[in-house]
Amino acid sequence: MQTCSRIFALKNWCLKRVHRIRRRRFDCELNLSEVSEKFPDLRDRYLYFNHYFWNRAPSWLRDHRTFFSKKNRGFGEDAFHAMWYFLFRDLKPKTVLEIGVYRGQVVSLWSLLAKKWGVKIEIHGISPFTAVGDTVSLYSSGLDYYKDTLFNFSQFGLKEPILHSGFSTDPSMLNVIASRKWDLIYIDGNHDYEVAIKDVSVCVKALNLGGVLVLDDASLDTSYKPFPYSSAGHPGPSKIANNMNRNEFAELLSVGHNRAFQKIKVL
Ligand SMILES: C[S@@+](CC[C@H](N)C(=O)[O-])C[C@H]1O[C@@H](n2cnc3c(N)ncnc32)[C@H](O)[C@@H]1O
């Protein structure tokens, strides 16, 4: 059994290395809409972003990911860093919110991207800043997640974000969500359907027209078949993404288990 899992780990490691190698097929500059046109196959699209991360992105993007890949500082996959790079490069959002901050990987990446493009941005994060998980996630205790997030920002010389301690479903957090119109909201908090659907219902109303809602862990029951080192997500967010109202939202992009929906109509 142990030998089997070692062989699997080795094959996985080799595949990951192979997918980093420069390949002519993926070696091109595209904008957001061109990526989906050129790579309709979701595995190819994932590989395009993974390839971009390793071969075309600026080194500071990889440095940021390297920092959060160490010591359990963050989740996600390399390709997602490239996805955020594209979203911020092409859309330049100015009011942004993350639900489920953990140790600040994504909010600090947003701050870095905005800084690099000289965009004045307001970054908010809602999270309990404790080890609270859900039925599919477990986080380690004994860490002050709030202080840790601010410390991680300081490592990159970034301005502190506006952090709100609480659960996304708390009345005070609902007020934060409803307090303005957002250009971008990323939901990666509690992955259980009952909670995630509440998050999405509130957030869709709080988005600007043209604003983007990104759902994490949302690609089960799609044509995306994950590589052994990646994941298609969890049932709750996937069900929600698969049932998004297509009169109100167009699917702008999907990269692995991250799916981005753009508000095209106010209902
Ligand atoms: C998967 S982690 C987020 C990872 C982060 N996006 C990143 O890439 O580093 C989920 C986070 O959501 C938090 N969380 C759990 N339930 C939540 C809720 N109801 N509202 C907001 N955050 C929640 C967890 O404590 C954890 O910090």
Radius of gyration: 18 Å
Largest sheet data: 7 strands, mixed
CATH topology: Rossmann fold
Strand order of the largest sheet: 3-2-1-4-5-7-6
The coarse overall form would be globular
Question: Concise description?
Answer:
By secondary structure, the chain is of the alpha/beta class. 43% of the residues lie in helices and 16% in strands.
Question: Could you walk me through the main structural features you see in this protein, from its secondary elements to its overall organization?
Answer:
- The protein has 267 residues and is an alpha/beta fold.
- The chain has helices at residues 2-18, 32-38, 42-55, 59-69, 78-91, 105-116, 145-155, 171-178, 193-206, 235-242, and strands at residues 95-99, 122-127, 162-165, 182-187, 207-215, 249-255, 258-263.
- The protein has one domain (24-263): Rossmann fold, CATH 3.40.50.
- The chain is 43% helix and 16% strand.
- Strands 3-2-1-4-5-7-6 form a seven-stranded mixed β-sheet, sandwiched between helices.
- The radius of gyration is 18 Å and the shape is globular.
- Bound molecules: S-adenosylmethionine.
- S-adenosylmethionine (SAM) is lined by residues 74-76, 99-103, 105-106, 126-128, 132, 134, 137, 139, 167-169, 188-190, 195.
What distinguishing features does this structure have?
alpha/beta; 267 residues; 16% strand; 10 helices; binds S-adenosylmethionine; Rossmann fold
